[in-house]
Structures are given as C-alpha cells and as structure tokens.
Amino acid sequence: MNDTAKVIFGISFIFLMTTLGASLVFLFKNKISERTNKLIVGFSSGIMIAASIWSLLLPAIDQSENFGNLKFLPALIGFFVGAIFIALLDIVCRQINKTGKKPYGMKRHTKLFIAMTLHNIPEGLAVGVAFGGAWALGTPASMALALSLAIGIGIQNIPEGTAVSLPMKLATGSKVKGFLLSVASGVVEPIAAVIGFFLAASITVIMPWVLAFAAGAMLYVVMSELMPESQTGEGASFGTWGAIVGFMIMMALDVALG
Q: How far is CA 198 from CA 92, 184, 203, 209, 229, in A?
C-alpha cells in the first residue's frame, strides 16, 4: 500500500473493529437470566476500568514528561474534571427533567454512551496524530509505526464495542438499538483521527489532558452505575468474576498491543 492507502486503512480499521465488537450482541439470546445480566455488566466494567488505566491514564502520564516530577498533574486534573463533567451532566438533566417533585437524572445507558464516546475521541486523536507525524516525516518506518498503532487500537476496540452494545441491549431491550448505539459511540473515533492527522503538530500538547478527562468520565460511570448493578441482588459473584475476566482481557490486549 502507498502512504495514502495506509492512512485510509488505519483510520477505517479502528471504526470497523468497534462495529465488529458491537455486532457480537446478536449472538446473545433475547431473554437472559439475572446471573448472565450480572456477568455482562461486570464484564463491561472490567473492560472499562482496564481501558481507563492502560489506554488513557498511563499514556497521559507518559506524555507529560515536560512537567518533571509533577508529570502526574495533567492526569490528575484531567481525571477529576472528567468525573465532574459526568456528575454535572446528571445534575443538569435532573433539573431539566423535573416532573412535579421527583427529579430524574440521566439513564444508565446514556451515561455509558457518553463515557465511551469520550473515551473514543483521544484514541482517534492518537491514531490521527501518529499518521500525521509519519506523513510529515515521510519515512517507511514512521508510517509502519503509525499503522501498527492503528491496528493495535482497532483490536482493542473489539471488546470495547461489545462492552457497550451488551449493556445497551440490556437497558433498551433491543439488540438492534444496542448495536447501533455502540457503533454511534465509535463514529467519533475516525472523525477525531482525521482531525488529529491535520493538527498533528499542535494537538499533542493537550493529549494528556484529553486522555485523562476521558478516563475520569468513564470510571465515574463504572463506579456509579455499572458496579453497583453488578453487585446487587442475586448472582453478585457473577458480576465480580465478570469484572475480573473483563479486566484481565483488556489489560492483556492493552499491554500486548501497546
């Protein structure tokens, strides 16, 4: 492939893998048991926790070397702001959706959708920046490295797509809606990649903050919504083991694929 084809393939690949992961929702039965429900929610929680650490927070710290001994600062601030962002969104929704004296916040699947969409933005930016830098250098080695990053993130997107589509299916009662919402959360990734490609030189400055922001938003949703659901009622142990297995799978993929 020439360089143009490699860029197009890499940016398309990350979205196609999200779609592939989302499509796995169609393999599940329409009605599932309470234990299976706990297992799925726990599994999604484990994947999101591992992705927050290895895909977002650790890269944010690694990219903050210019802060010296305070290189944790962008990750710390970005993480907190990301969690505050979701919390404030929920509060705003409660005020907007007030009916009589009973306020209603965002639904669980809405929070999950927002969190995963935010998570996909910095991943897309990272791919775009890598290809933009490689394009500027014009060397086969740099382009191969950018392509490897895109393939690595794309493979990671398979379980992430599943981690969104399955809880969405449980929340909406529709496999099609679960699939479409998961795909929609991944659409921002190639869009962000294109932006990152053209702004490769300038966007790297804000990347640690964006990565940490996404991690804070995602972990807030995990802790406030997914984990409590997986640990209440019958079959809580299934939720626990689902989270452990999901965490192990995502950790292995993140470390192995860089």
A: 35, 23, 9, 19, 42
